[in-house]
Design brief:
The chain is α/β, with parallel strands linked by helices. It contains 13 helices and 27 strands. Strands 1, 2, 3, 4, 5, 6, 19, 20 and 23 form a nine-stranded mixed β-sheet that branches.
């Protein structure tokens, strides 16, 4: 009979979940754990997305784990290489045997009396039940089974093919075709140069521009250091270089948005022909980093535009027609293929139902604590990466924090810890880190944050690293407790539900 009771359950076997398991094995080796993964493979995002040219929009020296150097020449890596990196990590640390594939978590209920989570998951058409002391969410932030596509008028009239990048399949043919990509985010910017290699022509259709910046796909400093230093030392130096540069640039963008905007547009102008209309197609109405910047490795999209293989149209969609897309300006964009790179469908906590001692909770009711726990929710951590830096930076320090908590529970002979929100003195607001569409659409479903620390999301790796790794766990809010009825040195016995 399969084991059903654990010290820790990790939800998700993607980049975050595999990293969490490594930290757990190294820093809390006595803890029994399992990973519940809804799909049948390791890799998460990097296994799900299969569209042409898929790549990271962060450098792999910060998107990679702190404990496993990225050794490939390209710092801006393609999706298959990242997936291999995650799977290699799982194999190196013997993690795969702890993963229960095809287990989609549907609910989690906490009992203070038992100091246990009861987790229900769908598996092979049945509901299975597991229990754990600590629940650790590494399920990402969007729906895997649904992307966001606006309900454009006349889509059924279109004679060609319409595909969302999240559901790209081998039968999507763009060779020699007229392709229109709707959107101006990272996915669209990746697709344009890749499709332009064999398509007749590619149009990126956007309602409004996005800030874009080009950088080499290969980090020459990283590659040079790796040639003369041990790989881990070279990796650490490069990682800190990139962390510091990213942090400086973000803070500069917030403090001097007009100066940064001017500089970004000047840099962009060097990659495009002198007469290109940067004002219309590349000048956003918002400030830098109010939305995530788009990375264009080796200026590949700009090269496609300069060569005439691709173009940008800035307009609104009136409706779809048989031959293409009619714009509000009256122009018809002829198309054989339309790719709706229109965004993700945000989903908090993997879409599962959450309750504490019989009280149902919704994500919009939750209050963030240090960007990884929630007020009044015991023994529960949710991994949520940075919007202004690599996701894994936050995932790594979150994993280290979880290990600190687990070890502290053992040291204090307590059963659970819970952040207690103060009765007065802290105001609440919606937790919307960016003005991007997928955040704006889900604003009422996002957890709230407070007007002061530790109830705020900082989006600052350097300060978070100090907060989560170095500062005391007991900060006046995070409280360690024994279960009701327990006495010192005695834990409540939890019966195996099987």
């Amino acid at each position: 009979m399969a084991e059903t009771d654990f010290d820790v359950l990790i939800v998700g076997a993607g980049l975050s979940g595999i990293g969490a398991a490594v930290f757990l094995q190294q820093r809390c080796p006595s803890k029994r754990y399992a990973i519940l993964e809804g799909r049948e493979a390791v890799g998460g995002t990097w296994d799900l997305f299969r569209y042409p040219g898929i790549r990271s929009d962060s450098d792999m020296h910060t998107l990679g784990y702190e404990f496993k150097p990225w050794k490939a020449a390209k710092a801006i890596a393609d999706g298959p290489s990242i997936k291999s990196y995650v799977r290699e990590t799982a194999d190196e640390h013997d993690i795969t045997r702890h993963i229960r594939f095809g287990h989609k978590v549907i609910s989690a209920a906490w009992s203070t009396q038992q100091a246990r989570w009861t987790v229900k998951a769908e598996h092979n058409g049945k509901t299975v039940e597991l229990t754990c002391s600590f629940l650790y969410m590494c399920s990402g932030y969007y729906k895997y089974d649904k992307g966001y596509t606006p309900d454009f008028e006349g889509m059924s009239d279109f004679a060609g093919q319409i595909v969302h990048p999240q559901f790209w399949s081998d039968d999507v043919d763009y060779t020699g075709k007229k392709a229109v990509i709707i959107g101006s985010g990272a996915t669209a910017v990746t697709l344009v140069p890749e499709l332009a290699k064999t398509a007749e022509h590619v149009v990126m259709l956007q309602r409004s521009p996005t800030y874009m910046v080009s950088r080499p796909a290969k980090d020459w400093i990283a590659n040079s250091l790796r040639a003369i230093l041990p790989s881990k030392l070279a990796y650490d130096i490069t990682r800190w270089k990139n962390i510091r540069l990213t942090s400086w640039f973000y803070k500069r963008s917030q403090a001097k948005p007009e100066k940064v905007k001017k500089k970004l547009l000047e840099m962009l102008g060097k990659h495009l022909k002198p007469d290109y209309d940067i004002g219309t197609h590349f000048t956003p109405s918002y400030g830098p980093w109010d939305q995530r910047l788009c990375l264009v490795p080796d200026a590949d999209m700009f090269d496609a535009i300069n060569d005439g293989r691709a173009s940008i149209v800035t307009d609104h969609i009136e409706r779809f027609e048989e031959a293409g897309i009619r714009l509000k300006s009256g122009e018809l964009l002829e198309a054989d293929l339309v790719v709706t790179a229109t965004g993700l469908e945000l989903q908090i906590l993997g879409g599962m139902a959450l309750s504490v001692d019989g009280q149902d909770l919704t994500p919009g009711e939750l209050i963030n604590y240090k960007g990884l726990m929630f007020a009044d929710v015991p023994n529960f951590v949710n991994t949520f990466g940075y919007t202004n830096a690599s996701w894994t930076l936050k995932a790594d320090i979150t994993a280290a924090y979880v290990c600190r908590i687990l070890n502290r529970l053992d040291e204090t002979d307590t059963d659970y810890c819970v952040p207690l929100f103060p009765e007065a003195g802290v105001d609440l607001k919606s937790d919307v880190p960016l003005t991007s569409g997928y955040f704006a659409r889900a604003a009422d479903r996002l957890p709230k944050q407070g007007s002061e620390a530790p109830w705020q999301l900082t989006h600052d790796y350097l300060s978070d690293r100090k907060l989560l790794r170095d500062e005391p766990l007991e900060d006046g809010y995070l409280t360690f407790k024994r279960t009701v009825g327990a006495v010192a040195g005695e834990k409540l016995k939890v019966l195996d539900p099987a």
